[in-house]
Amino acid sequence: MAQPSSFFITTPIFYVNDAPHIGHAYTEVAADVLARWHRQSGDDTWFLTGTDEHGQKILRTATANGVAPKEWADRLVETAWKPLLNTINISNDDFIRTTDQRHEEGVAKFLQKLYDDGHVYAGEFEALYCVGCEEFKPKSEIVDGTGAFEGEKVCAIHSKPLELLQEKNYFFRMSAFQERLLKLYEERPDFVQPASARNEVVAFVQQGLEDLSISRTSFDWGIPIPWDSSHVTYVWFDALLNYVTATGYGADEAEFERRWPGVHIVGKDILRFHAVIWPAMLMAAGLDVPESVYAHGWLLVGGEKMSKSKLTGIAPNEITDTFGADAFRYYFMRAISFGHDGSFSWEDLAARYQAELANGFGNLASRVLAMNAKYFEGKVPKSGTEEPADAEIRELAARAAATADKKMSAFAIHDAIAAVWELVDELNGYITDQEPWVLAKDEAKRARLGTVLYTATEGLRALAELLHPIIPEATAKLWTALGAEETLGALAEQPLREAGTWGRLAAGTELQPLAVLFPRIENEGDTK
């Protein structure tokens, strides 16, 4: 079992049949914020992401582009998927590809164990298959086609015709784990989150589970079944195993013990794979099930789910090229309640950038540091007698840190940011009320001026630490300006959960010039 202080978090591994859009980036940022929060808190953190490169969909896409599937995967990984991580400033510790040798070897060992233990058998299968989902569709997701597809059965998610497949396959006895899964959901109600996702999963399993076809013979782009090389492994069975093959399963038991089990952040459209099939697989192999599976909502554009096929996909760099990575991260984590669907609009993004980031946080930092430079020769002033207004800021900093940590632990990223942003707003109000520029005109009030500017500067210190997981570039600039010698985000002596502890910024510290945190965006109304 993993130690209590360990935190292993994953994103799904994404198909390389196309370039990423902001829906993929949304998942990456959410997992990254949580990973950074735990890492900065001193937890033994490991953040895994990667790409899913097998299956019929990849094979068809590569063939349509006139290249071998591995060549296609290599091209997309290097030109699109890995660059995405830099575009939105992702701090992953590992990147796994299902074509990695470590993964293919781990999948073979896992399959062989299930086969040897009697959890796999041979049989025949006929059902409607969606290549887009890489799944034999349940009846609840099969609908009648309309328009060009009238008279055909189509996938409820992709709105494209389903294919009738009939094959001799190997099956995983998933039905045998129905009661154990229901017991898991009952005994650990937080295993699937949020509550709406848990209810959906429980209802699905209660309807009865069927055995799962885990091999294919109609194509050969996949990991061979170890005891029968005429079959390749079903792409989802292959893909789900990345979470354990990346952490040492069957190869490095010490590392596996250290990391597993983990937390999975997934889109709600792939919840069933992670909350039903995956724990059943692990149960069969005698391994721990995940700590939790958290399903976030969809990003909507024009009322529709983000999709390249429906021309609603937006490339992340379309946003970051104008607003930067920090604004991308802040907007999607703050504007959307994590766990629910959320609509994206350029107008809302531009408005929040200006009001909350540039004017709210950026202007606060520049004003406070400029006054320190002007009135105290660029050094942190000494704090004198505390007055009620100062105490309110001190108490709020402690409260914000505690609330944010509690909310992050509950995956309520938007609420955590809101708790910290209350300190941004209150500090702006505090500066306005205390009028340090007026205090500076009266030498008799210099001690009070020092207290006010120390309070504001120490508030900036707390904000730099608390907001670093969300807006790492801006907070690193602020941290440097505050004269800190340590690297923000790796504070062994100053764990994030203690960011609200007052007085950690020493009086007399030499401050540095502050780089612009959020540059002015020209012609905001014409961004799109």
TrEMBL record:
Annotated cofactor note: Binds 1 zinc ion per subunit.
UniProt-annotated binding residues for Zn(2+): C130, C133, C155, H158
Known partners and oligomeric status: Monomer.
Cited HAMAP family: Met_tRNA_synth_type2 (MF_01228)
Gene Ontology cellular-component terms listed: cytoplasm
Motif 'KMSKS' region in this chain: 305-309
Compartmental location: Cytoplasm
Pfam families noted in UniProt: Anticodon_3, tRNA-synt_1g
Name of the gene encoding the protein in the UniProt record: metG
Protein name: Methionine--tRNA ligase
CDD domains with a match to the protein in the record: Anticodon_Ia_Met (cd07957), MetRS_core (cd00814)
Motif residue range(s): 'HIGH' region: 14-24
InterPro entries: Anticodon_Met, Met-tRNA_synth, Met-tRNA_synth_2, Methionyl/Leucyl_tRNA_Synth, MetRS_core, Rossmann-like_a/b/a_fold, tRNAsynth_Ia_anticodon-bd
Enzyme class, UniProt record, top EC level: ligase
Alphabetic keyword roster: Aminoacyl-tRNA synthetase, ATP-binding, Cytoplasm, Ligase, Metal-binding, Nucleotide-binding, Protein biosynthesis, Zinc
GO biological process, any: methionyl-tRNA aminoacylation
PANTHER family (alphabetical): METHIONINE--TRNA LIGASE, MITOCHONDRIAL, METHIONYL-TRNA SYNTHETASE
Role this protein plays: Is required not only for elongation of protein synthesis but also for the initiation of all mRNA translation through initiator tRNA(fMet) aminoacylation.
SUPFAM superfamilies: Anticodon-binding domain of a subclass of class I aminoacyl-tRNA synthetases, Nucleotidylyl transferase
GO MF assignments: ATP binding; metal ion binding; methionine-tRNA ligase activity
Domain Methionyl/Leucyl tRNA synthetase residues, every copy: 8-369
Cofactor(s) needed for function: Zn(2+)
Annotated ranges, domain Methionyl-tRNA synthetase anticodon-binding: 380-524
EC nos: 6.1.1.10
Reactions listed under catalytic activity: tRNA(Met) + L-methionine + ATP = L-methionyl-tRNA(Met) + AMP + diphosphate
Gene3D superfamilies: 2.170.220.10, HUPs, Isoleucyl-tRNA Synthetase, Domain 1
UniProt key word Aminoacyl-tRNA synthetase: yes
